[in-house]
Write a structure and sequence with these properties.
- It holds the Pfam family CoA_transf_3.
- Its EC number is 2.8.3.16.
- This is Formyl-CoA transferase.
- By secondary structure, the protein is an alpha/beta fold.
- Helices cover about 40% and strands about 15% of the residues.
- It has 2 domains: about 260 residues, Rossmann fold (3-Layer(aba) Sandwich), CATH 3.40.50.10540; about 80 residues, formyl-coa transferase, domain 3, CATH 3.30.1540.10.
- The strands form 4 sheets. A 6-stranded parallel beta sheet has the order 5-2-1-6-7-8, with helices on both faces.
- α1 links the parallel β1 and β2.
- α1 crosses α8.
- The chain is elongated and about 85 Å long.
- It starts with 12 loop residues before the first strand and ends in a 5-residue tail after the last helix.
Length: about 400
């Protein structure tokens, strides 16, 4: 799980004080590209994600992905001595990642102003439900709430039916990725503009809102409220899910020339040549008819037959993948998107690969996810504490 390739973020030290998804996903991404990530988690059970979803050997297999390339320092931040140790660690760091409710750091005497007094170059990533300012800042917020406020949940439904979640914690991961962009931007600014750090303030709902495309311009210009459309792409045609004999297939025939090739492939030359269907506006006006024609063709074929025939016609189409489909797909394997990772419990598990792909400094899995406090003694020793001092901290239950 190690690599000799150069790491883009080698020498960058990240202190992670978050838990569950958003903050830890951000530092996971930084760690994959070479940053040293020291995760501070509470003694005892540690990060609650250790116990989320499916458990193997007492630990979530999700944990094996979320916390690879990290070191675990089990430190009680509720105690003053624990807070003092955290400040000492942060004083020598490049990045602090936290996703607590606003005001938590301030309550521990770790406000950005106090931390920048200790470490002027520190980049502080703060991920929260509603951001560090504004009338909602103190409200509790999880990813699902951010998805709702950001406008996404309203659209993830069939018309007239209950809004559904997309199946993963997309609000948290979108916030994490925006946080990574902010951290990298701030580190670059620090390098070229005099060494000063800054705060990166990411709100869950704003990260979701940022990917909502034309939602607000359409409302502003036309008073149009975009509504749920199931699997279709409103205003762009044809782009939908269509039934096959053994499942569903997604077909995107919404380019002008692609549409013509699609209609020829399904035996509808009349639609391919129709003057009013030569552009998107005309196709949107007749979308129900077009969808019906495509569906009539797909439902007499298997998914594999449909995707094979449309690939030959150079029409974008694909099956709806399950986990099994992904794990068995040769393209995923060819691009190292399914990797084997040996856990610290000794078993091997397949995990997602690393995105994005960098040609010169690719991301790597250097170490597996730690047990709670695996690196406590090592990190504190590196900070200059003696074995006697570490022993006293352990006796007081400040560390594990």
């Amino acid at each position: 799980m190690s690599s000799s390739t150069p790491a883009a973020l080698a020498g960058v030290r990240v202190i992670e004080m978050g838990q569950l998804i958003a903050g830890p996903f951000a530092s996971k991404t930084l760690g994959e590209f070479g940053a040293e990530v020291i995760k501070i988690e509470p003694p005892g059970a540690g990060d609650p994600l250790r116990n989320w979803r499916l458990i193997k050997n007492g630990t979530s297999v999700w944990w094996q992905v979320q916390s690879r390339n990290k070191r675990s320092l089990a430190l009680d931040l509720r105690q003053a001595e624990g807070q003092a140790l955290a400040r000492q660690l942060i004083a020598e760091a490049d990045v602090l990642v936290e996703n607590f409710r606003p005001g938590t750091l301030e309550g521990w005497d770790m406000s950005p102003e106090q931390l920048h007094a200790l470490n002027p170059g520190l980049v502080i990533l703060r991920i929260s439900g509603y951001g560090q300012t504004g009338p909602y800042r103190d409200l509790p917020g999880f990813g699902v709430v951010g998805e709702a406020m950001g406008g996404l949940r309203h659209l993830t439904a069939e018309p007239g039916r209950v809004p559904v979640r997309v199946g993963v914690s997309i609000g948290d991961t979108l916030a994490a990725l925006h946080g990574v962009i902010g951290v990298l931007t701030a580190l670059y600014h620090r390098k070229v503009q005099g060494g000063r750090g800054q705060v990166v303030d990411v709100a869950l709902h704003e990260a979701v809102f940022n990917v909502m495309e034309s939602l607000i311009p359409e409302y502003s210009a036309f008073g149009a409220v975009r509504e749920p459309a199931g699997s279709a792409l409103p205003g762009i045609a044809p782009s939908n899910a269509y039934p096959c004999q053994d499942g569903w297939v997604l077909v995107a025939g919404n380019g002008d020339s692609i549409f013509k090739r699609l209609m020829q492939a399904i035996g509808r030359a009349d639609l391919a040549q129709a003057p009013d269907l030569a552009d998107n506006a005309g196709r949107v006006a007749r979308v129900a008819e077009i969808d019906a024609a495509i569906g009539a063709w797909t439902q007499t074929r298997t998914v594999l037959t449909v995707t094979t025939e449309l690939a030959a016609a150079r029409v974008p189409a694909g099956k709806v993948y399950t986990a099994k489909d992904i794990a068995e797909d040769p393209h995923y394997r060819a691009r190292d998107m399914i990797l084997q990772q040996t856990t610290r419990d000794g078993y091997t598990v397949e995990v997602p690969g690393i995105v994005p792909k960098l040609s010169g400094t690719p991301g790597t899995i250097r170490t597996s996810a730690p047990h709670v406090g695996d690196d406590t003694d090592a990190v504190l020793s590196e900070m200059g504490l003696s074995s006697e001092q570490i022993g006293r901290l352990r006796e007081k239950k400040i560390i594990q």
